[in-house]
Amino acid sequence: xxxxxxxxxxxxxxxxxxxxxxxxxxxxxxxxxxxxxxxxxxxxxxxxxxxxxxxxxxxxxxxxxxxxxxxxxxxxxxxxxxxxxxxxxxxxxxxxxxxxxxxxxxxxxxxxxxxxxxxxxxxxxxxxxxxxxxxxxxxxxxxxxxxxxxxxxxxxxxxxxxxxxxxxxxxxxxxxxxxxxxxxxxxxxxxxxxxxxxxxxxxxxxxxxxxxxxxxxxxxxxxxxxxxxxxxxxxxxxxxxxxxxxxxxxxxxxxxxxxxxxxxxxxxxxxxxxxxxxxxxxxxxxxxxxxxxxxxxxxxxxxxxxxxxxxxxxxxxxxxxxxxxxxxxxxxxxx
Length: 335
Hints:
By secondary structure, this protein is α/β, with parallel strands linked by helices. The chain has twelve helices and ten strands. It has three domains: about 1-35, no CATH class; about 35-130 and about 260-330, D-Maltodextrin-Binding Protein, domain 2 (3-Layer(aba) Sandwich); about 135-255, 3-Layer(aba) Sandwich (D-Maltodextrin-Binding Protein, domain 2), CATH 3.40.190. The protein is about 40% helix and about 20% strand. Strands 1, 2, 3, 4, 5, 6, 7, 8, 9 and 10 form a ten-stranded mixed β-sheet that branches. Helix 3 (about 50-65) packs across helix 10. The termini are far apart. The relative contact order is 0.17. Mean pLDDT is about 90; it is low at about 5-30.
């Protein structure tokens, strides 16, 4: 007797047939079972970042649900543009997908006007996966333990505070710029070429401040090498419940400030609605799987509650406009 997963999988041809009845000639090509071959998930970054963590945690469970291999391919380069372009130009058949952080979709378009893809037109948002809050971390010997204490220190030491980031236009830099604007604080930017060097200098006390993702910084907090003053997410992370949000600091201007380093899965524009909805349903089942959550949480990735493609699309558009408003005044340009 077929199991529930295989039964659901073979319902898809019926959806395709109904769709093809309303489609122009040639639509009958979709009247087949989906999926019937390997599904490829492209990560537009090197291994190890939040998108890669999400993809590898998702792929095994999704493969079980789809009844086909789901492989992960890293295609890094140009701040995610290389992999994003590859997926944008892939056949819109559901067999090539992309898991990415927010940067290539809602940040890079406002910094690099020559991107080889249109972030809002070339992709269909399929499902949100997870997020990592940005933690405001300081060296253990830095004489502040809370955000209000940091504000007092900045006021008493004008022009003497610097902050690290992993580069202009990155989320670590932009989160601090949101914080600076909200609190009217004078903190100078020191860009680094990567998180490892920035973490080394931060732990050593060479530089006093940084907003960094949980996936790379929280292990140092737990080890007692750094202090965490706050997390940028809208609510406390279940993975680090001891770290207060910016909203909880008691500073009025931070009550509406939140930044999530979200990760989601996208398909090339033109992918049939039936395929997108089917993938969304199966991915949502994975998001509720305890083993998936445990694996994602183990990499400091909080998991989103299930959402529809329409909900994710609306979220992406809101984020796109929000980051446009943040980035334009900064006049950041791509190298």
